[in-house]
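In response to reviewer comment 3 from the previous cycle, which asked for concrete evidence that the modeling workflow produces usable outputs, we include below a single protein chain processed end to end. The sequence was submitted unchanged, and the resulting structure tokens are shown without manual editing.
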Amino acid sequence: MEKRDLYDSKRNPTGETILKGEETPEGRYIVVVMVFIQNSKGDFLIQKRSERKNGKYATTGGHPKSGESSIQGLLTEVEEEIGLRLNPDDLQLYYSGKSEEKRVFWDDYYIKMDVEDIKELKLQSDEVDDVEWFSESEIIELMKQDKFFKNHFEEFEILLDWLKHNNL
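The workflow returned the following structure tokens.
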């Protein structure tokens, strides 16, 4: 069973852990990481989550395992879920936030890269049904149809603002 590190309200490690699926204790936080992968055409690599994971479209992400940094956790999640290796030097942290209600710290990353053939990616079947390239407008349309995971769409909106302000 996967362990996750716990942090205090200032994101200092407490030395405590919980198991995947356990509720985060009061006054403690876990880290959530995600990445938006954009190709040279401007499209984003989006996954269709398995029915067990709500069946909606989303970006790739998850929780670092105990002992992993935010970036290490992200690299692990991307490789496990969609079989893609990212170069950590190409990742850009575009947003880091905190949710008191959900007791999480968010680290959102962006990477610009082309993937030769997404049909060759090895998907983790209990987590991901499919991956596709979607344009910004297609993602917005999926959200309007309630087919895109709301939490990830909120992070996508932050990304779009960041991209606009950084001329990327």
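The first helix runs from residue 70 to 82. We consider this sufficient to address the reviewer's concern, and the full set will be provided in the supplementary archive.
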